[in-house]
Amino acid sequence: MVKKFTAKVITTNRLLEGDAVYLTRDGIWSPEFGDAELFTDPAGASLALETANRQTLLHVGAYFADAETDPSGRPSPTHYRERLRSMGPSNYCHGKQAERANV
Amino acid sequence: MYKYSEFDEFFVRRRVEEFRDQVRRRLDGSLTEDEFKPLRLKNGLYLQLHAYMLRVAIPYGTFDSRQMRQLADIADKWDKGYGHFTTRQNIQFNWPKLADVPAILDALADVDMHAIQTSGNCIRNVTADHFAGAAADEIADPRPTAELLRQWSTDHPEFQYLPRKFKIAVSGSSRDRAVTKAHDIGLRSIRDAGGSPGYEVLIGGGLGRTPMIGAVVREFLPESELLAYVESILRVYNLHGRRDNKYKARLKILVHETGIEKLSREIEAEFAERKKWFAGVDPELIEALKSAFKPPEFNLSRTGAFERRLEKDSGFRAWADTNLFEHRCSAYSIATVSLKPIGGTPGDASANQMRALADIAERLGHDEIRASHEQNIILPHIRKDDLPEAYDVLAASGLQTANFGLVSDIIACPGMDYCALATARSIPIAQEISRRFAALGIEREIGSMKIKISGCINACGHHHVGHIGILGLERAGVENYQITLGGDATETAALGDRAGRGFSADELIPALERLVEAYLRLRDSCRETFLEAYRRLGPEPFRAALYPETGKLAA
To answer: Which residues in chain A have Cβ-Cβ distances shorter than 8 Å to B32?
Structure first.
């Protein structure tokens, strides 16, 4: 039996900064998971990943992260690893959570 | 201390230039990520969850005020104002930017430091007893041996592509503070019947996925034959270590699968050949290195300032009670500076704390500092009567935590807060344990306790050899923590026994509290440590405390 496709976003780490970024509908990389385009069909997702991985000077290699839609309609990570990666470490206000606080 | 020779300096600078060029070529597209990744790893640069991470070697944990200040400056200039001391006597910076790394490596080279061989399948930073050169119980200073091994292993052409990483630890005392039995090679300084210096050689120890205690492969190896013998071990491992499965590629698996007797014969056969090439080389080198690690000139006078402060200051008394260790010279103490403030991140030091430590070392500590594998900083030579002044500087920087060897002196790997390999977080667990037992106010009543936490099976947090070990895993999409009991990292090394099913993060702290309460109830006197009680009673009463529900079922 073919496994049911779960919704995904495309993510990677930027080459210069090393921080996590997410592919948006406009084809740019956002530091926010919630800005990502949520792929619900396998063919579209694969094609987008292939395209993203041609941008070899921007990032270190993209991959799929499982996602779901949160109550506000934006994608959010289903696994805790991606949730932590989208926030920053829990011991200091560093990384994305700090950047958000500075906005 | 050993100072770089012209050759060391040239070699390190050349590597920085090489890496600068590699970064440039990655950024202009001449190198792909797949090509660049092994090159950056060769220079200690990892990519973690949120950023790059640079792992800097502190060879055998020994450094000085100049180096510590430079680490502080690097933390301020290119990172977020702190560094993380690891269980491998290294320091890690968690937030460098790729384009800045060549400049960071240059700054390290300015103070005789580098990040070479802190990653990859090569011989890693050689570790040693963190009380080296200072402990009253020392037979021989392990650092000349460790430095010899550093020089020999750095860029050794035959051993750059081993089946897997390779770790060597050296202890110079009958008490093992370097976890030698959990290393690929453990060297323990001893003397033969005639009083000549040498080593007991252990091989095949290691933690990780398949934890094993090292086995003695040579009961006495003369000091002068060290390199030939170690090279023979490496050669046999390099030839026969498995390369088909990275999880079975460490020396411990070869020892396990071949048997120590057979492997020992192979090593001895190789050694018989190699020894011919090394004749006459080692002794000269060792003597030169020994003179580089000459003990400082100790000031033996006493003023009584230490006793006077003990008398009137309970905070100082508490600190002196736990954090001082007997020095080879009676007018001195070895001071452990805890990097485990209550609720803090084990092993982290801010740039200002690093500068305070550098100041004390320079002014009051014969300019010597050690990084401990237990993620603390050691000031190895503080005159007893200077301890009050040193303590005041520590206290002004929040470094006066009096908990060395107690329940809040926890080893914890970075876990999933930073590490890309982790399966669960370690740091928040350590913080919570530390806060909980501090709130209960029973730390000193509990006494000696080693809690060690790893956020994945690779066991950087040494959980197998913790009196209480905690391993963070994923179970059904949430973090889950397995407990092992009765591990020991010392000369009586033992791997802990798995207690039973794992706990969620919420269940874990109450479970540990039940475990510790059971120990306090069961011990035969307040002098019997947790480990001794566990050895006397076996796991059952402790399991019953962890899993009260199974006890009820059985009853």
So the answer is: 56
Whether the Cβ atoms of residue A48 and residue A99 lie closer than 8 Å to each other:
no
Distance CA B297, CA B512 (A): 46
This prediction's pTM: 0.96
CB-based contact A90 B425, cutoff 8 Å: yes
What DSSP designation does B296 have?
P
The C-alpha of B99 sits at a distance from chain A's nearest C-alpha, in angstroms, of 6
Selected residue of B46, B417, B429, B431 to mutate for chain A interface (largest A Cβ count, 10 A): B417
Place of tokens 């060879």: B59
Reference B348, options B376, B323, B370; nearest CA is B376
Best of B32, B36, B49 to disrupt the A interface (most A CBs within 10 Å) is B49
| Interval B431-487: pLDDT, tens | 999 999 999 999 999 999 999 999 999 999 999 999 999 999 999 999 999 999 999
CA–CA distances in Å: residue A71 to residues A56, A68, A74, A76, B235:
34, 10, 7, 10, 60
d(CA B20, CA B26): 10
Size of the A and B interface in Cβ pairs below 8 Å: 68
Chain B residues with CB-CB distance to A under 8 A? 26-27, 29, 32-33, 47-52, 80, 94-95, 97-99, 345, 416-418, 425, 427-428, 431, 477-479
| B466 within 8 A of B452, measured Cβ to Cβ | yes
Work out the burial of residue A3: count CB atoms within 10 Å of its CB; fewer than 13 is exposed, 13-18 middle, 19 or more buried: exposed
> Residue B411 and residue B427: Cα distance in Å, rounded?
9
Going along chain B from its start, the domains and CATH numbers come out as 6-110 (3.90.480.20), 142-292 (3.30.413.10), 305-396 (3.90.480.20), 411-554 (3.30.413.10)
For residue B552, is pLDDT > 90?
A: no
Q: What are the pLDDT digits (tens) for B58-101?
A: 999 999 999 999 999 999 999 999 999 999 999 999 999 999 99
CB within 8 Å: B98 and A16: yes
At residue A24, the 3 state secondary structure works out as: strand
Type of residue at B336? T
Tell me whether 0.90 is exceeded by the ipTM: yes
Q: Where are the beta strands (DSSP E) in B242-354?
A: 324-326, 332-337, 348-350
State yes or no: pLDDT of B280 exceeds 90.
Answer: no
Are the C-beta atoms of B53 and B82 separated by less than 8 Å? Answer: no
Residue recorded with tokens 């890309």: B420
**For chain A, what are the domain ranges?**
8-102
**pLDDT tens-digit series, residues B314-369:** 999 999 999 999 999 999 999 999 999 999 999 999 999 999 999 999 999 999 99
